[in-house]
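Comment thread on ticket #2218

A.B. wrote:
> Attaching the input chain for the structure job we discussed in standup.
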Amino acid sequence: MNPWIRLAIYFVAAPLIGGLLAGLDRILSARMQARRGPPLLQPFYDVAKLWQKENIVVRRSQNFYVLFFLLLVIFTGALFFAGSDLLLVIFALTLAAIFFVLGAYKASSPYSFLGAERELIQMMAYEPMVLLTAIGMYMVTKTFHVHEIASHPALLIVWLPGVFLGFLYALEIKFRKSPFDLSSSHHAHQELVRGITTEFSGRALAMIEVAHWYENVFLLGWVYLFFAAWPPAGIAAALAVFGFVILVDNVFARLKWQAALKSAWLAAALLGLGNILVLSLIAPGGWRPASTALVPKPVRAGSTAAAARVSAAAGAPAGLGAPMAENPLRGN
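C.D. wrote:
> Ran it. Output below, let me know if you need it in another format.
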């Protein structure tokens, strides 16, 4: 598919899919808590209502950071679905998160300030695993470009099971779900009220919600890459991962930031780095004996380099050239 067509589909479909996933999240969470829950389209109603509300700010510049947070999240997803470099995608995603944190710092509220600090801690927790995921995909496919990774004939989950589990752990942090809802939470048990988004209202809060929709679709698209060789399995895996994140959110209590940081780094070291170390010993085509590295490359006959290589292989000095071939007319 043409990259421009993929981009057009992403710009239009991502907020729709993200909003539906947010509504599904609310319904499933309510059913797990023996409640009926809101309608599926409730997130769209909330954003539309927020867009009509009066925009009250502590400082005008805080909405400037929120706007760039939204634009950079959209830009991150556009890079990903256009098939760009995966490292560039990671850098754009990190820059978007930094603008979000700066907006919370600018609000000069103790709740948003603590939420911003916890958001930075969460970034420190999941960034190593995100980078290891990109490195693992490169080791299997020999490329960082998303469109080449997606077209690779092998299922990446076969070669990267540890990386996938570590990335799943990082998704719990990135989705801001329990037990890692440190900076902000949609549950009532959050002691920081709304944490990092406490001082945002009106259109600024609506833009934050839409940015999260774009971000969630992008992250589930990354899950799809592990199963891209079989598209139906990729779509099913992305939906299953989203359901698993919701289940964990409703089952586990929130961790302290120290435990969250240590556990995330431990998962990155054991699952991500361990998988990559094993992968460095095993090639995707199977075991490679060390003797294959000593086989000389085929060379063109008659060239100076060929003569030098043959001489070296025969034990003759390089300057003497190749040994003279035996004359078939000469007697033994």
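A.B. wrote:
> Thanks. Noting for the ticket: Residues 110-141 form the longest helix (32 residues).
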